[in-house]
């Protein structure tokens, strides 16, 4: 069907999934300024610091931490990176040369999921995004301490990052993200360093 878009460039899908990463709107930015950045004492009001504004549990009007990771993962970053890795690349005629992009996407997806679990402690992960592929409309929740398969989630993320760093370290003749990568300009060595650093951080 000449009217149908049968393939799309995975590099463009990567850019769409990661643009404005962790800062997708003015609400994101202002939420951080009015909440968590005050707690962390990165900023103070233009009228000066206010006594007791940081941590005082009994105080009623205290800054509210703005933690958008759940929404970011399920409505933008996580779902789009999953779509790229599980749909766009496998359907591409040149899919074997997009394995580096898939590995980078998997590392970023694990990072974003880890942020979410670190804050919320429970969320669908293993069964998330499987309505179209497996008909799962009510995914079970994984717990940070123990997922639905009995493993701590940080070990799941660590293994995923480790496996994908290995892909980046051993692959050859791959399409490069180049300017579609706003983080490292397609530099695979820097993505390997990012993945290894993320494993240490987790």
Helix content: 40-55%
Mean pLDDT: 88
Task: Tell me the β content.
Answer: under 5%
Roughly how many Å is the radius of gyration? 19 Å
Number of helices: 9
What's this entry about, in short?
The chain is an all-alpha fold. 50% of the residues lie in helices and 2% in strands.
Structural notes for this entry:
The chain is mainly α and 202 residues long. Helix content is 50%, strand content 2%. The chain has a two-stranded antiparallel sheet. Helix 4 runs parallel beside helix 5. The model has no long low-confidence stretch (mean pLDDT 88).
List keywords for this structure.
mainly alpha; 202 residues; two-stranded antiparallel ribbon; globular; 9 helices
Task: Present the secondary structure layout.
Blueprint: H1 10-18, H2 26-34, H3 36-39, H4 69-75, H5 77-91, H6 99-120, E1 122-123, H7 131-134, E2 142-143, H8 153-170, H9 188-201
Antiparallel strand pairs: 1-2
């Amino acid at each position: 069907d000449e009217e149908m878009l049968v393939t799309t460039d995975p590099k463009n899908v990567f850019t769409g999934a990661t643009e404005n990463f962790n800062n997708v709107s003015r609400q994101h930015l202002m939420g951080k300024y009015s909440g968590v950045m005050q707690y962390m004492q990165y900023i103070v009001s233009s009228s000066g610091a206010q006594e007791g504004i940081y941590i005082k549990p009994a105080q009623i009007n205290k800054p509210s931490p703005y933690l958008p990771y759940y929404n970011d993962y399920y409505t933008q970053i996580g779902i789009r990176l999953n779509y790229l890795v599980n749909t766009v690349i496998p359907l591409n005629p040149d899919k074997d040369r997009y394995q580096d992009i898939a590995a980078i996407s998997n590392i970023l997806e694990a990072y974003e999921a880890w942020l979410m679990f670190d804050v919320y402690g429970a969320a669908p992960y293993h069964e998330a995004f499987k309505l179209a592929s497996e008909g799962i409309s009510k995914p079970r929740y994984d717990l940070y301490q123990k997922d639905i398969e009995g493993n701590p989630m940080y070990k799941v993320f660590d293994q995923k990052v480790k496996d994908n760093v290995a892909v980046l370290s051993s692959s050859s003749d791959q399409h490069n993200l180049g300017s579609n990568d706003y983080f490292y300009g397609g530099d695979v060595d820097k993505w390997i360093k990012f993945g290894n650093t993320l494993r240490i951080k987790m």
